[in-house]
Design goal:
DNA repair, about 350 residues, 14 helices, alpha+beta, 5-stranded mixed β-sheet, 2 domains, 4Fe-4S, hydrolase, Nucleoside Triphosphate Pyrophosphohydrolase, about 40% helix, 8 strands, oxidized purine DNA binding
Length: about 350
Amino acid sequence: MSTFIEAPQPLDAEYFRTRLLGWFDQYGRTHLPWQQGRSPYRVWVSEIMLQQTQVATVIGYFERFMQRFPDVAALAAAEQDEVLHLWTGLGYYARARNLHRAAKCVVHEHNGAFPVESVAALSALPGIGRSTAGAIIAQATGKRAPILDGNVKRVLTRLHGVEGWPGRPEVERRLWQLAEHYTPQWRCADFTQAMMDMGATLCTRRRPSCLLCPFEADCVAHARGEEQRFPESKPKKEKPVRKTMMLMLRDENGHVLLEQRPSSGLWGGLWGLPQFDDGGALDAWLAREMPGSEVQGRWSSFVHVFTHFRLEITPVQAHLSRQGDQPAASGWRWYDPDQPDSIGLAAPVKALLESLSSFTLL
């Protein structure tokens, strides 16, 4: 593990800003959907979607989301199921739940206006951290607010040769100091976008385009030939493997039984296939809850990777020789794969459901 060495000396702030904005004026991204008709709401939704997700992936989701929820009031009034449905496939579903909660806070506690007067006020909303709040303020209002997302961390650690994993508190503090040093009082929206664009298009995680960078002559990592060493990775731990069985129970109409996950935790609030730890538990549940059903076999197991663990999923096919009754308990439903409802589905569940045909019973 690397040790944290003395803090690097920053470049002259005016020099940095001039070169960065000169590059941005020529090569920066200025036609992204959330840059058109900018508002705190549009910028906020885009920033939440862009967490852990690339721009190319986000664009389609953002446009569909804006079409359905053109303002924060529409989002606040929506059912969580519909919000999660529009988020299906984007991953990290806590973002969608927090987005929905924050919209309600804005409408009911702030009279529908985002509290963009300060980073502290904005970051009090669910799902908004210091960097996201800074990006929203700078992009939507033009006011000065430093940011430090993953792209910016990568630019600053390479430029200054900052040792240590950026998640360590002392390293993150130094990076915030550098971000504060460089952020100007003017052209704040452009500066913020330029910093993100640098990391996303030039100072990329793999094979950075150093020869095209306006700071090629200033970059410590480049001078050392150590671009790939910065930023340092989080100390690795072997991801534990969890196992689950997903029951694909279809009735005589080809409808599939779904259950809604608890509001928090893994796939919180999404609809999914009933899950069991082992075959014995699955068989016992079917005998008790779905008499007349028959297990017909297992599909090949596959792995779905989460941030902190790997989930090994074994789909189990079963058939109910009658029409499925509407479950008495809430949180259960029969789902027609050929006429999908507007509900949130976990990505592996969505893939399994799409593989089914209502006319070919399992």
